[in-house]
Task: structure prediction
Amino acid sequence: MRDLSILGLPLTTPVIVGSGLLTDQERNIRRLLEKGAGAVVTKTIHPNPPQGLDERILRLPVGMLNSTTYSKRPVNHWLGVLRSFADDRLPVIASLHADSPTELAALARDVEKTGCRALELGISCLNEEDGLEDDNPDRVYAYTSATRGRTALPLSVKLAVGEGLQERARAAIAGGADAITLSDTIPGAAVSPATGDLELNGVYGYSGPGLKPLVLAAVWQLRRRGIDLPVMGVGGVSSGRDVADYLSVGANVAQVYTALHTEMYDTLERILAETRELLGEPQGAAL
Ligand SMILES: Cc1cc2nc3c(=O)[nH]c(=O)nc-3n(C[C@H](O)[C@H](O)[C@H](O)COP(=O)(O)O)c2cc1C
Result:
């Protein structure tokens, strides 16, 4: 396998742990890295996360619905944690979002001062009260360019598969993104057999194996249309085969998240071993 890196981080494997509840804790992040994850993305850090929402996860026969939004831990807590990761030279990508582009840019600046080496802009979460109905290229450009203007850190912009993806990806590039993370969860619903109402009382983020064919198709199409910046493929990875499939369609690395809700560390170790088996060891990666 050729040299491997993303956002300036040298990687020992193309398997990265994606952002979510499991990465809301310093202890989990450290252990995931000890088990061999190439890097870990934090739960999305937000200066003003919505309060009082009923944030839950629901396992479906295939995949998962979740109504979670952002980390409830204060920014100052995260700045301390990121500083300690940086002191230990750990490959941690800080996922960030805020209520406005200016606030996101200020947060990115504060995070840069901790010594953190890479950012992911978690701007595509659909679980806020009004969903993501205003998602469009202008919004993506506004968040990306404002952040780019305040930090020199490599940054990936996280998008969701769906309508207008190509334009949103081009807006991220125009705004100064160094990479794209694809995909966030997409709108999903399940009906409660008991009540006939929607589970979780609405439409929320769907993740897991059902997402993978959609994201594979989207990455492949972005590449075909000439988008050549690094892509982190995310959605439904639960085996080394899935990781290899993402690389085959043009992703540079793959992130795994929902699969880790079952036996987190064992599952990660299995995916890492299967990936090694299929792809070999990356060469020249800094251990
Ligand atoms: C419970 C849960 C919480 C999540 N929280 C975040 C988050 O805070 N920020 C973010 O960018 N993505 C978040 N995600 C999305 C995942 O990082 C990932 O993009 C998505 O679930 C698709 O990958 P998967 O099928 O491997 O889970 C979350 C997903 C789940 C299931």
Notes: The chain has one domain: 5-49+69-187+208-279. The mean pLDDT is 95. The chain has eight helices and 14 strands. The first strand starts at residue 5 and ends at 6.
